[in-house]
Every structure is written in structure tokens, then in C-alpha cells.
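At this stage, I wrote out one protein's amino acid sequence and its C-alpha cells, and that material follows here:
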Amino acid sequence: MALKDVVERIRKEEARVGRDVGSTKLIAVSKLQPLERIRGALNAGHRLFGENRVQEAAGKWPALRKEYPDLSLHLIGPLQTNKARQAIRLFDAIESLDRPKLANALARLQEETGLCPPLYVQVNTGEEPQKTGVMPLEADSFIAESRRLELPLVGLMCIPPLDEEPSLHFALLAKIAARNGLKELSMGMSGDFEKAIAQGATSVRVGSAVFGDRIESISGGL
């Protein structure tokens, strides 16, 4: 099974770089994957998954959670402020806190409902205009402001540029996390997760290497 192979690669890289075996969590990215593939991973014992869109996650995970109440679901895609209320009830962690407007919206909802899952600040390490995320030079001040709002920050997340060495971006994210006292690092995907582990990733987000091509790819979509 591909899931087993990915886990074995993670453990092998942990051992190679001298990290504790099991110190890197696998977030199986299930966006646009058919239900039978997700069930296959669940039946194999995997419990940590990542989704990009609130609406898609809302359509499949509440029912699955009734069958597998110990699963954990992370939002790893951009979060619109008008979806924040739904997101805090649906997800066990939100990895895409990326702007003051969203931070303020989550703070208001937390005060109103008493709910807010653990949050990761997304850092745009490549400073790419087409990507969401806080710019590296603004990360410290954004983290400080989010803490002032009493948001439950636990870590950082990044998606490196496709045409640059990812290890440089992983190292940058690790430095920002260290100086701000954040322990969780969500970084690394199917093509580079071993490099992320070498730079200290505590979780890697792997989709195609676990599940195979997404439905949109199979059907000729984006």
C-alpha cells in the first residue's frame, strides 16, 4: 500500500538525520480523493488528514467522523473569513492563518463561541505574489499580534516555490518558528517531504504519494 511506503520513507529519513522515530506526523492530503481511497487509509489505521476547502471537507468528513471518532482533520488551504465559523467546528487544526482580517475574525469567534482549534501561521517564504501567507519580514509582528488576540498558535506552515530549493525555505521557516517559540512545523509535500524532515518538520502534507492522482487530474482538470 502506498500509505505504508510513505510512512516507511518518513521513518527512514528520521533515522538518517538523527531524529526520534515517530517525531514527524503524516498529514494525508485527501482533497479531491474518492471516498474509497480515504476509507482505505482509515481502515489501514491512519487518522490524520488534510483538506484544502471548507465546503469539500464539510461534504464528507462529518459522516466519516461518526465512524472514526478518533480522526483528526487539518485545514491546509486558504480560509475565507466568511467560512471561519464553519471551519472552527469542522477542523481540528487550521494551518492557513495568513492575514490580520482572518486573525481578528477567529478571535471574535473564539470570544463568542469559546471555540478555536490550534492555529498555524502560513508564511509565504518565497514572497510569491500569487500565494497567500505572511511575508517573512512581517511574520514576527503578525505572530505577536495573534498572540495579543489570545489565539492558540502552535506552529508555522509554508509552501516553497516550485523552482527553488525547498530546503532553504524549510530552514527559514524553522528559524522563524524557533525565535518565536513555536514548536510545530508543517512543511514538505509529496516531492520534498524528506528534505523537510531533515530541516525539522513535525508534520508533512502528502497527497498523491499516498492516494495516487487526484480526480481532477484523472479527468483532465487543473
Q: What stands out?
A: Residues 217-222 have pLDDT under 50 and may be disordered. Residues 2-16 form the longest helix (15 residues). The first strand starts at residue 25 and ends at 29. The CA atoms of residues 18 and 198 lie 9 Å apart.
